Give the backbone structure.
Amino acid sequence: MAGLSFWRQEALAAAWAAEQDGDMRLSDIGEFGFIRRIARGRRAGRSVVLGLGDDAAAVRVGAGKLLLVTCDPVIEGIHFDATATDEQIGWKAMMRNVSDLAAMGGAPRWAVVSAALPRDFPLRRALAIQRGLDRAAKRCGVEIVGGDTARSRSGIQITVTALGDVASRKMVTRAGARPGHALLVTGALGGSRARKHRTFTPRMAEARFLAERGWASAMMDLSDGLASDLERLRERSGVGFEVFADKIPISAAARRGNASREARVRCAMEDGEDYELVFTTPPAKVARLRRAWARRFPLALTQIGVARPRAFGIRVTNAGARAGAKLMVAARNDHFLRNVREGRAEFHLRGRRRSGCRA
Amino acid sequence: MAGLSFWRQEALAAAWAAEQDGDMRLSDIGEFGFIRRIARGRRAGRSVVLGLGDDAAAVRVGAGKLLLVTCDPVIEGIHFDATATDEQIGWKAMMRNVSDLAAMGGAPRWAVVSAALPRDFPLRRALAIQRGLDRAAKRCGVEIVGGDTARSRSGIQITVTALGDVASRKMVTRAGARPGHALLVTGALGGSRARKHRTFTPRMAEARFLAERGWASAMMDLSDGLASDLERLRERSGVGFEVFADKIPISAAARRGNASREARVRCAMEDGEDYELVFTTPPAKVARLRRAWARRFPLALTQIGVARPRAFGIRVTNAGARAGAKLMVAARNDHFLRNVREGRAEFHLRGRRRSGCRA
């Protein structure tokens, strides 16, 4: 589920002016600009513990218990292409929602599925998509309890809404990072588009462990890419982040496709769809967490930075880069922004503009 | 939310045979055939009180309390056309889901919205859709707690998932009709496509009244049309229905567009999107219900038939029609079926094929 991204003041001002003229398009304001716009002035009711702006919404359904709700579509040509099998389409549609619930420390429980398919879509393919949904659901302990099937004008669109629950006191939001907290990620980043985004399993056990034992002060899943997602963690927690570029774990897929360290770091920061966890933890806990983690999970756990005061912004630092160069957040994974070329992203690692990576 | 429809045996047999050949299309089996197919062999877990096949799913979230979940999209060119305003699109997207919750006796509480819009969609229009969603939500006491915005390849698609709650003992499903129970509808039917389907308010107060006072033994909202929806009520309750054609309340819109009584009845049975309630009640309660209803609601309440044993099937009877003529259920509102011409429907009221109505 999309959150509210920080948006540059000048863009907002321009947006507001253009809106007055009524000639602005979604591509001018971007997905997060749009969500920010519709969230304006909205106040959550008493039953709502967490509304717009986190991985999932949380509402009160019983004493000490929260219901988590999240809803994300997969759309042909946007979230998958012709290389995806039908089962992978169904799998991804379920898993990207489960990943949102997991990132709050929640246990996924139920899902409803809205499938829009072309009228003459082969039944065999529709059943294969369903099989992917079912297998993913089974893998995650989710029960598909309902849904709807409608005709699309063209292409496949599967929208899963996933429901889960979590004890109120165990929920981890994006809002708990404090200056000084260590910034960590699970697994390795980048190159997901080669394959992983269609086949990943959300980090459910890892997220539950981090939430239930109180290790994570703030957490989210990496769906849009570290650069973009850190921006949201930053905004919700009211902190800044220093990211150690040379510490970022690079996936084998990103290494394969890119020779230079810089290109690989770009992949890791901007490809998106890693579906790994990024979280913060108080510095005093880091060593203990590492030991407990190693006993429990074979998956890599890497400290990639540290939370700083808000005014710090987000900066990527490493030996090779100009110290303190400010990260320009790439909007590659913003669904509407027009000024980002398809399949490419830009950010300033050393003050120079560089183009995107290959996976 | 779509349910499981009865499907003719021969069609199923043909479907199965064709599926073996792997060359079947959704248009051959239809929406309900497809849903029936994917529901095959599915067994609900312990937390699931009601899975596929009713207006909404019901899951257990606390002692004596059920969470209701339903999810329906509105898609440009399918659920609305160029005559709909943007606000109406948002309104309808919310209200058709709230209507499903209401029909189970539930109180709508929360919603998440997944909006797929073209990249260059005007911000002004996106905000108008959001305004429609917000106004509908406010009207129904629903809080929009989250969602996602994605780029569509073409056209507007808004998928709302609505959540509500209901006391376990007050929930009304489609399964409680028994032979002899009276069959009633609220309001007047037909001609919704002229306007009502974009502007309706779900019968929330009426549904709550029917559920909380225990008047309704089975209930659903009329979304696909009386002919099609009765088929689902029949299937879930394991009964038949005799429908008194001359008792069906015809809307002013359907009367305006059609001169003959027969054409008007066709509209009322097949237009769909009435978003009225159809329900059954034990015969001993009918007179008392009528009195209590009249004290409370100005809306018409009409007995249009009676539940019969399962073997009766669905028959439409009236003075003008051949006695006992069997209703052939029109599949006009099945999203996939190919053998139904767009905007037209066919059913056999007197043994002759007749074409659809005008609204």
